[in-house]
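Ticket #4471: structure export looks truncated?
Reporter: QA, pipeline team
Priority: medium

Steps to reproduce: submit the single chain below to the structure queue and open the exported record.
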Amino acid sequence: MREAISILRQIEKLPDIVRFTDGEVAGSVSLGMSSTLASFLAGAFMKACQTALPTVNLSLATGDSATLSARVLAETLDLAILFGNETRSTPGLVRTPLFRQRLYLLEQRRASKAPKTVSIAQLSKTPLILPSLPNPTRSLIDSFFAEAGSAPIIAAEANTLPDILSAVQSGMGAAIAPIGDLSATQASGRFSATPIEPAIHQTVYVVFSDGAALTRAGEGVRELLGSFIHAFVKEHSPPGMESVRS
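Actual output as written to the record:
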């Protein structure tokens, strides 16, 4: 069944493959992006793509990393930017690391000054809203607690950043998420982000299916992502975000 779907997808892409043989990169590209990443990267990258690849029609979809991985495997998305497991890759996906992101404790903003860091001992006493399994961020968090001989107190589970923040806002608990700056979100000013110590980092990858060749437009978007992320980190220095390029 997957082979049949792959053939159909390749036929659908033929116009983008055979057009513009004079060297201009053009065509349609569907890009998935984790809702957490989209909260601060989506607008800036869409603008960069419009400037650098003006004849590429970029279509953006957001969701959780597990759902986006499944859509890339099913070839209903050309590419996706998502959080991954550093020690285990998903069969059928080709991935390239873009950056590393530190995880933070997200809480309702307090009247008093927030602490500089939060420890595993403190986290173990805090009701948490976490993504549900299977989810690479949740797996990383569970491993972090297990290595400390502890376990998280699960108040609720939610898989996208807006849903997680909504639960935090309701007073159900705090959240652990790979984002240290919420200023670009609608939640700006309502939450604090405190770095966890010892630090937990997660790698973000751009992925595509190994069963389908990217069009020239798809390759153009994938290459642009690397240079965009490097420039974004250098210019904005988002908290906890480290480019993998030197």
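Status: closed, not a bug. The export was complete when the record was re-opened. Leaving a note from the reviewer for reference: The first strand starts at residue 27 and ends at 34.
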